[in-house]
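Researcher: I'm comparing several assemblies side by side, and this is the next one on my list. It has 482 residues spread over two chains. Same procedure as the others: predict the full complex and return the structure.
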Amino acid sequence: MTYQELPKLNPEDPQVYARIDDDGLCRLTCTADHPPFIAWLAEGNEPLPPDPIPEPEPLTAQQKLEAAGLTVEELKDLLGL
Amino acid sequence: MAIVNFNSISGVSTISATTSMTVGTGVTITTNGIVGVTSINSGQLGGSRNVIINGSMVVNQRGFTGSSGATANGAYTTDRFHLGHSMDGAVSAGQTTMNSTVGGNAYADGFNSALHYRVTTADASLAASQYAVITQPIEGFNLQGFKKGTANAQQFTLSFWVRSSLTGTYIAELYDYDNSRSVSKSYTIDTANTWEKKTLTFPADTTGVFDNDNALSLYVFWWFAAGSDFSGGTLSTTWHTTQANRAIGQVNFLATAGNNFFLTGVQLEVGPTATEFERRSFGQELALCQRYYYREIVGSAGAPLGQNAFATSATSARILGKFPVSLRVRPTALEQTGTAADYAIFTGGSTRNCSAVPTFNDATTESYIVTATVASGQQTGHGGSAVGQVTTAYLAWNAEL
C-alpha cells in the first residue's frame, strides 16, 4: 500500500491523496489530516508525486453544438445558409 | 417492624406496607422505587439502557460476511465492532444470518444476525506481545450514566450470546481509554458449538472520570488470544493498570484453523442486573451506526448518488450531498469501490462514465463534496446528478473512534 498525491483540478480544491492498495486500485482518497495517512507519513513514508493532468479529449462539432444548445438547422439559420 | 410472608393473596382491595414489599427473590417495592426488576412482560424496561450500538449485529454497512469477512488489524466488520490483533495467524469476521440450526437458543431468543469470527490461519504459539480481540469503542458522551470516577460510580453489566467451537476460559474486558485503567472478567464456553448466554458484572470505579466528549473513552474487548504480556500476572477483576493482569487464562482460540466464534445480543448497561436486551428498530440502529460510518449505496444500476452534481469544467464535476445524521467528527477521507467505471456523471442530458474514481473534496459533519472526473464533453455549470453504474457502487465516509 502507498499513497499518491493527486493533481488539483481546481485551484481552490484541497490537496488530496489517493491510497493505492496492493492490487493497484484506489479505494480511498483523503486530505493531509486523515489520521491513517498521518501515521503512514510518521513511519517515514512519502507519497508518490502526482500524475500529469490528462488533456481533455477535443469536442466534436456535434458536441460543441449540443453544448451551445443549438441544432444544425438553427446554426444554418444563424449563419444565413 | 412486622414481616408478613405469604404465597398468594386474593380478594383484598388494598395492600400497604410501610417500608417494602418483596416478590420472590426478584422485585422489591420500596418507598423509593422498584428494584430488582429485570423485565416487563419479559421485555425491556425502557429505551437507551444499552450503550453498545448494533449489539444485535443487524447493521452491516461494509457488507462483510462470515465467509468473506474483514481481516486486517483495526478493520471494522459488522458496524461498530472491529478487529484488533498482532499475531502470525489470520482471522476473518463478518455478519452471519441466523436460522434455527445456526442460531440455536440465540435465534430462539430473537436474534437473527451474529458476528462470525473465524480462524483462517492458525497461530499455535503466541509471542509475548501477540494478541487477538474484537472490540467496540464507545465515546464519552454515551458513558456518563456510569458516573465513573465519582463517589456515585455505578457497576457495569455486560451480557451477550456466544457460541464457540472451542470450549474453555475466555476473557471480556472493559478498558477505560481516558485513564488507562481496565477490569476483566472470565467466562466459560461450556459446550462446543452451542449458544450460551453470558452475564458479567464489573465493579464500579471511583477513580478516573470518563471525558464528556465525542472522543474514545471505553473499549469493550472480547479476547481470543493473549501472549504473556497480557496474561503473565493474576486476573484482575477490580480496576487496575497492570498490563499483565488483563487476560489471564484466555484459551488460544487461534491455535487451530477453522475455529469459529459467534457473538450477538451484546448489551452493556448501568447497574448489577442484566436486563432484557434493548431492542431498537432497524432504522434507529442504522442511524446510530451512521454517526460513525456512512455508506451511500445505489442498490440498482443507474440510480443516483448524492443529491446533485454540476460540471466545473469539461472533465470535472462536483457531487454534493447531505449526511442522514450528523457524523461524530468531520470525515477526512472518501471510500469507493476502486473502479472508475462504477460511477458516472449525468449533466446536460448526457451520462458520461467517470475516467477516474471519485475523490474526496471536502466534508463537514453534516454534508460532503466529492470530485468526479470524466474524459470530456461536459459544459461548465451544467447541473445534474452522479450515477452508480453498478449495483455495488457506493460512496462512504468514516467517522469511527
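Model: For your comparison table: Chain A touches chain B through 28 residues (CB under 8 Å).
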